[in-house]
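Lab manual, section 2.4: Encoding a predicted structure.

Procedure: take the sequence of the chain (409 residues), apply the prediction step described in section 2.3, and record the output as structure tokens. A sample record is shown.
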Amino acid sequence: MNQMDLLQSYRSRLHHKLIGLMSGTSLDGVDAVLVDIDTDEGGNAVRVTLKDQVSIAYTPQMKEVVGRLCLPGKADINDVAVAHSGLAYWNAEAVNRLIEHSNVERTSVDAICMHGQTVWHAPEPQPFPGPEGFLTVTGTLQLGNAQFVASLTGLPVISDFRSADMAEGGQGAPLAPYIDYLLFHQKGKGVAVQNIGGIGNVTVLPADGGPLDVFAFDTGPGNMIIDQLVALHTNQQSQFDKGGAIASTGRVSERLLDVLLNDPYFTKRPPKSTGREVYGLEFTNRLLQKASSLQLSFEDTIATATAFTARTITQAYVDFVLPVTNLHTVIVSGGGARNKTLLSMIRSYLGSNIEVAVSDDYGIPDQAREAMAFALMGHESLLGRPANLPAVTGAAKPVVLGTITMQQL
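Recorded output:
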């Protein structure tokens, strides 16, 4: 099948089967979902059904390799090139395991919708030499060679979802909000869908608003700093604070927390996005130096880092969400949904008038939402329809996202 045949076949049907792949900034691994998408005669998705889910955790060696690529001045160009191909094997393995686990025919899957592994995101314009003087350009880099994935799975691959939005002046993020209205809106109630992966991002569904009223932005660090602190302290033997158990035994240092909150990102108005290039290992090492000067224990440092994530999330609501809509519910997804201490802090900072739930309460596993979102974006790409939200990303106009790569015939 060539690309034209794929598009004609896809657009002729009302029922579609797609695989979504997500690798987040927390460097946990690859999440793969199999979804059925049912549409009306106009191609509009009326139902997105999660049929199965598989996750493959990165090994410690793999996390070290990918983590090194995210460090400015440390990444070797040969390592980047090899990782681009190597990560394809991880994504292909996730697809093949998912197909086997779900017991579906490979030929029934229309396409793979792959986000890839972000190693650098540079949404702020920077000078670059152009053919007629200097330009200002933005950039983003997700690794995972789509042609390798297509060859290893025998399926078409849609990838590079962020670039089209950035080419139109957008931040290329957040993109997952495209699915949140369909999955989580509650008539007459304001809802915040808060993903807490490596980075935290919120989708706001205003009370009595429609799909065009949705807005979103990155709130700041999610699990990234906490994970790095645990990994450094345990010499990579542990990679995260399971359930928030370590943070629950520590005391929050308000002095350190005040220093951390004095960051210009948090007062910047949306649209905005951030990532490991800001809150990566260098930031964590500076935090450790400040914690040491205050003679904080490991447990107190983890508790404070956890409070930092909770405060940046809730303060973002105060500054940028509540002036627009009342909030009835906050729905948390991502790895942070399993951190009981973090959830408790968020509830404490928000107060009793706003319910804090997790996406599992709504039938969407916390590791599935973003992969499902990219499956839906891939669906729109196959229909030739835009899937970015300019009000969210800051792009000049809606654009079709992604690039289609066919398997070799």
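Check your result against the sample. The mean pLDDT is 94.
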